Amino acid sequence: MSSFSFATSSNIRFGEGCAKTIPSLLDESLSPLFVLTGSDSKRYAQLIGLLTQSGFEVFIHPVNGEPDINTVTLASEAARESGAQCVVAIGGGSVIDTGKAVAALVTNSGKLIDYLEGVGKGKALVHDSLPFMAVPTTAGTGAEVTSNSVIGVPKAGVKVSLRSASMLPTWAVVDPELTYKLPPEIAAYTGMDALIQCLEAYLSKFANPLTDGIAREGLRLAARSIRAACSKELDTDAKADLCAASLCGGIALANAKLGSIHAFAGPLGGMIPAPHGAICASLLVSCFSANLRAFDTRDRDNPSREKMNDVATLLTGNPQAKASYALAWFESLCNDLPLKSLGELGLEHSQIEEAARKSASSSSMKGNPIELTKFELVEILEAAL
Predict the structure, then answer these.
(1) Quick check: 358 and 276 in contact, CB under 8 A?
(2) Rounded to an integer, what distance in angstroms lies between the CA atom of residue 279 and that of residue 265?
């Protein structure tokens, strides 16, 4: 067995209603708090009120849309001006990613672009981040337990990562109750992101025994609950399952990397105005199919090929299931949920070559279990269009 390392958030709280315990996790010395929320901060007035009632000075900063260089820079400047001693993010993956970046930049000098992978200087963050608390309100990204922040760079037309081990959240507070009112469309594409992250971390060439166990459990939970969790009828057990699957996916990917789906999602996120999870969902079937064909034509004995059969068993409950069953299961799921194709999300055929080229050098592609050719990358995008 090859050597590996493993890291995750220092303190994870999970359970219905656990968000109400937030003040008890924070020391008075961490005031003032810089609290990031979604665009409608009034939705979180009750949670923020718990903080103020506990004596914390709070500065609220709404986040509109997915983070890019400008929004993260402005938020970081506001956090410095507030004298923040701690950053709290209450929202979806975009809010949490913004919060992680803010907590890191407040303690490190220089411009954000200096620290970004691929498009910047790639400098390492010298100083530890401010203490950071992540309170997810969607079940999908697992950002509450990862050590990177995905940030859009409009001039380069890509999304890239700000990454450091010190960016792992100090506290992850996962309360399924905060996801109960998600519209089915948002629940679907964020839930698909959770499932896909467990899938890719499990198949990754950097997987290890710890990430395998976590990713497999996440896949099992997502498979049994994603349809019910995305229904218009509230199913609290299914919502909790999907939150746990998202948490599993975040822990697994932070230690095992991802694969071709997320390798495409980064560049595509900078090219079309579509949510990250929706892009990932549109690529699931074509990427899984392409990887399966690649294994069967040139590396059938690869251990990850056998893992694809195991994925089929996890999804279907059939111990004799083969990888082709998983592919059929994914196709059925995508048809059942309110999801869109890559073309419906805004990608033009003329953009395929550019997207394939950018994805080939993405950090997530390094985790893909088998190397894909340029032709295969183009073929994936054409099939997903």
Answers:
(1) no
(2) 6
Could you give the C-alpha distances from 360 to 140, 274, 342, 376, in angstroms and in order? Answer: 24, 21, 18, 11
Residue whose tokens read 């964020």:
190
Residue 164 CA to residue 176 CA, distance in Å, equals 28
Task: Encode pLDDT of 333-345 as tens digits.
Answer: 999 999 999 999 9
Kindly state whether residue 2 falls inside one of the protein's structural domains: no
Q: What are phi and psi of 183, to 5 degrees?
A: -60, 150
User: Is residue 4, in this structure, part of any structural domain at all?
Assistant: no
d(CA 207, CA 209) in angstroms, rounded, equals 7
Q: Among 190, 225, 233, which residue's Cα sits nearest to residue 338?
A: 190
Assign residue 346 a region: left if phi > 0, alpha if psi is -120 to 50, beta otherwise?
A: left
Range of the domain at 54: 11-178
Q: Taking all residues of the chain, what is their mean pLDDT, rounded to a whole number?
A: 94
Mention every residue, 6+ apart, whose C-beta is less than 8 A from residue 109. Answer: none
Are the beta carbons of 60 and 37 closer than 8 angstroms? yes
Query: Is the entire prediction scored with pTM above 0.85?
Result: yes
1 found inside a domain? no
The pair of structure tokens assigned to 117 is: 């992978």
Q: Tens of pLDDT along 306-329?
A: 999 999 999 999 999 999 999 999
Shared-domain flag, residues 168 and 42: yes
Cβ-contact 359, 267 below 8 angstroms: yes
- Among 178, 206, 222, the domain boundary falls at 178
- Statement to judge: residues 198 and 154 lie in one domain: no
In this structure, is residue 51 part of a structural domain? yes
Q: Could you tell me the two tokens for 21?
A: 């315990």
Instruction: Count CB atoms within 10 A of the CB of residue 50.
Output: 16
Residue among 21, 133, 145 nearest 86 (CA): 133
